[in-house]
C-alpha cells in the first residue's frame, strides 16, 4: 500500500519576501539601482482627470514597459501574464504576491 499525501489546509499566514528570491545579478536589479520614479506621479498629476475609471499607476506602467522592452515581450496581454507569474518581474514592478497585475486592455 502506498502512502498518500494528506491534503491538509494551506498555511493561514506565510512569510515570503520577494527580495530574497531575485538574484543579486539579475538584470532588473541593475536597472532598479538607477531608476528613480518617485517624483513622476507629482509631475503627471495635472494630466489626470479625477472623473472616470481609475488609471493604472504611472510608475507601475513604466516599470512593466521596461520589463517588456528588456525581455522582448511585445504583447501587452503576454506582458501582464509574465508579470503575474515571474517573481523578478513582480519585484521590479513593486508588486507583492497578493497584488493584482493590471488588465491588458
From TrEMBL:
Pfam families documented for this protein: DUF772
The Transposase InsH N-terminal domain, residue ranges: 17-105
Record-given protein name: Transposase InsH N-terminal domain-containing protein
Source organism of this protein record: Paraburkholderia ginsengiterrae
Lineage of the organism: Bacteria, Pseudomonadati, Pseudomonadota, Betaproteobacteria, Burkholderiales
Amino acid at each position: 500500500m502506498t502512502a498518500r499525501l494528506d491534503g491538509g489546509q494551506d498555511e493561514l499566514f506565510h512569510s515570503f519576501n520577494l527580495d530574497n528570491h531575485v538574484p543579486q545579478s539579475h538584470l532588473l536589479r541593475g536597472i532598479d539601482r538607477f531608476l528613480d520614479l518617485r517624483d513622476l506621479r507629482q509631475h503627471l498629476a495635472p494630466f489626470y482627470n479625477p472623473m472616470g475609471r481609475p488609471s493604472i499607476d504611472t510608475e507601475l506602467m513604466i516599470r512593466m514597459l521596461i520589463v517588456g522592452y528588456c525581455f522582448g515581450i511585445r504583447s501587452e496581454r503576454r506582458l501582464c501574464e509574465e508579470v503575474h507569474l515571474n517573481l523578478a518581474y513582480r519585484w521590479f514592478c513593486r508588486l507583492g504576491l497578493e497584488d493584482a497585475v493590471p488588465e491588458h486592455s
